[in-house]
Each structure stands twice: as C-alpha cells, then as structure tokens.
Amino acid sequence: MKDQHAKAVTASLVGLAMAISGCTVAQGAASPAAPGRAVTQAATQAATQAAPQPSATPAAGRPAVQAPAPPTPGAAIPKDPARLARALTGTTAHLRRAIDDWRRTGDPATGQAPEPVVLLALYQQRVYRYLARNPKVASRTYAALPKALAGAARANVTAIRDLLSLVHPVSKPAKFRVEQPEPADALIGHFRRAERRFGVEWEVLAAVMFVETKFGRVRSPSHTGAKGPMQFMPRTWDAYGMGGDVHDTRDAILAAANYLHASGAPRNYRRALYAYNHSWAYVNAVLLHARQIKQDIRNYYAYYNWQVFVVTTRGERRLTGP
To answer: DSSP letter string over 211-252?
Structure first.
C-alpha cells in the first residue's frame, strides 16, 4: 500500500506480489522455488480432459466414475487454442467439484486445502498466466470456451495482464520470506468483520489481499518499506492502523477497510483503490478479481490456492505451493 503522498507505482515493489496475482520481482529468493516434476502422459491428459460428474447412485454392477488424477505441478500447458480451451474447461470443472468437496467434507476454517484443490488451482493459475502473456492465443482460446467460462477467463487474464504491465524483471537477487496463509474461512471471518465495521465489501478486501501478498503468503516488506499482509507504509499505518499490529492479519484487514472507507469506499471503489495504490491497472485488476468472487464464492477458494511467482530476467520462478 502506498503512502497518501506517493506519486508512482514502482515496478520492483515487493508488495506488488503481490500486485501480480502472485508475481514478485526479483532474480532469486531465499525460499527455494518448487522444482519441476516430470510430466507423465496420464497427468497431462488429466489436465486437458473434463471428467463426467461422479454418480451418487451408480447403476447396478457399475463402479462409480472416479475423477482423474489432478495435474502435476509442472504439467504441460497446451499451446493449441482448442486443446488449451479443453484443458481450462476440464480443470475448472474439476476444481469447482474439488472445492465443493473440501467445503462439504473438509474444514476450510482450520486447515489448508486438500491436494486436488491445490494442484488444480495451480494448473488453472498457470494457464491464465500463459494466456496473459500470449494475447493472440488467448483470443482464440476464449472463442473455444463455453460462454460462461469465457467471461471468467477474460476477467482473470485481463487482471493478470494489467498487473504484469507494472512489473519489470530485475536481475539483482532479493530475499523473500513466505509462509502459509491463515485458513481460507478464517480470512473470510476477518473480511466480513471489517465489512460490518466499515462498509467495505469483503470481496474487495479479499481481492486487495490476494493482489498484495497472496493472502499473506508473502511476509517480506517492500523495498519502499510497506509492511504486513495488506502492505502498509508506516505513515499510513499510523493514521489508519488503529493501534494494531501491521503484521497481524486481522488488524491489517481492519486497517485496510478503514483506509478504503476514508478514501471513498463503498461509494466510489475506484477512487478508494487508487488511493490505496496509485495505478489504474491495479484498480482494474482488484475490481475484476472482486467481481469474480462475488459471482461465485468458489473463485475465492481457487484464488486462495494460487501461488506466489517471482518474475526474473531468467524467467518466472514459483516460490510457494507443491
């Protein structure tokens, strides 16, 4: 988060994690990137084919249809738009069912997501990042997607592309401290509490935290001195932190709602978000992500499992996840 008097968005801002839907800017990281894994043909097919919905009451003599194994962390992304559309369609369908199962039989309030959710969300994120960097392929892929998914894909790709436009890869090594975020439903509790107090929609607060630090995964301060899971500059925190701890998730979310409210939300989210970070690309990306969460809460749980990448002069590296 910028200070009230900040005049520009700096491309190497660590807190813009962060502003890249999971992209920081650096050559290296203290936390090692997850190594690539061999991609088997079966795993690739699992990522590119939609599976039928398992039946709760399978026909006599027939076993229940099992969902395919989720893609490996390094599963190949098809380059052909038609195959890429099938991959995204199947992955999204599988991810939504896995999220439904997690919410029904797991406990998003106390633990991390099960492996299928994590792997499917990572593959979805990687597909969207690929599309964001390849506009011509993206346009042809949208045309091959079901109408409802095409709209979501455009929103996600546009948001990522907007945020990538703020980043310039650098070669100077930097260290990043990353950790597991608080449980997904625990964060929703913080967002809703802040919404009740300041009137700022919880989905907007969630989108800000997602863009800034991937829901608190990134704990390093920015090179400008912004700190905490919502990336506050010291002067702004002094004015709006209400005596809390900038590194405490609950305190930081409340302070963000306080600052956004003072800057115009909920009457004018665009003005409030521009005060938070002086970039219209940032504003557009946050609102696109917030709209996706409003349309389907499963998008929040998918975003929660998107991982942190760094953009370097040698390519992208992933710092978190499997």
So the answer is: HHHTTTTB-PPPTT--BTTTTB-HHHHHHHSTT--TT-HHHH
